Amino acid sequence: MTVAAIIAHQARFLCLPFWRDYVTTMRPYLLFVSGVTGIAGVSLGPTVSPAAAVVLSVVFFLAYGFGQALTDCFQTDTDSLSAPYRPLVRGTLLPQDVLVVSLGGLTVSAVIVVWFNPVNVLAAGLTVFGLATYTWFKRRWWAGPWYNAWIVSLLVLIGYQCASGGAGGMDAPRPALYGTMLAALAAYANFVLTGYYKDIAADRATGYKTLPVVFGRRASAWVSDGLATLAFVGAGIGVSGARGVQVLAATGFLAGAAVFATVAQWRLHGIRTDEEAHRAIEPVVHSYILLLCGIAAAHKPTWAVLLVGFYLAFVWTARHRPMMAQI
After folding, report:
1. Mean pLDDT within 202-215
2. Whose CB has fewer CB within 10 Å in the chain, the N or C terminal residue?
3. Chain centroid to CA 120: how far?
4. If we measure between CA atoms, which residue out of 153, 177, 188, 159 comes closest to residue 239?
């Protein structure tokens, strides 16, 4: 490659259109999912400084976007049918460029969480490995939702260890930690499963044997019901030690999560086409964010107002996504 060609290639990373398309690929309306998961983990540990809280919140917030952009590089076959608006499908972004930025972002994020607590080196490495290998598992009905969800649930552990390490040591693991990880695991697996409902035709055509493709919508809806129930069992364990003001801070979030979960599961059983699937998927995301906000508020009641603002920011962003049928 000539010097001129190298300069021209590198210049793409300095152009506004590249970053606009990359941000679209990150799914800004879903950055709140990884953000609240990490925040819930941080809430379980000792109180961190405001500066540390801001840094960690940004890291967890961007984690979903970097991971989503990375996995999109390997799924353009099905995305070309179900989400033709995406920059990688339209060709306005090159997969190799997205890989460079995504792996770079994930690496910087891993360095930061390891700096807070060296114990995070294993969990951070596992998340990057999991994201890079997800597409193979997505093609298997028995693996997709769970494989994606264990990656996200590790953010709870990483957040907890960041807070504990930043405070000068790590507490012994508590039931709240395991309960919160279970809540994130089951709730996110449910989000992944319901998300497959919007791509059934595309997945069938491209050889992705997801649960709805193999067993149909009705059977998958019952599995989804089980995952939603398991998420609230985990949340119950996660907040089981809450008392007084902690309960008050968490109640509104958890009640809202329950309402959205009920709506989502009810709608899911009535979905008949890919095009209407977003009616069930969107309340699943609302429920996920409120559920983890509730756990965080139970452990850090002083964060309740900020968590309300966080949720409202998600609502606004979700309403401005580029394609309403995609979430």
Report:
1. 94
2. N
3. 19
4. 177
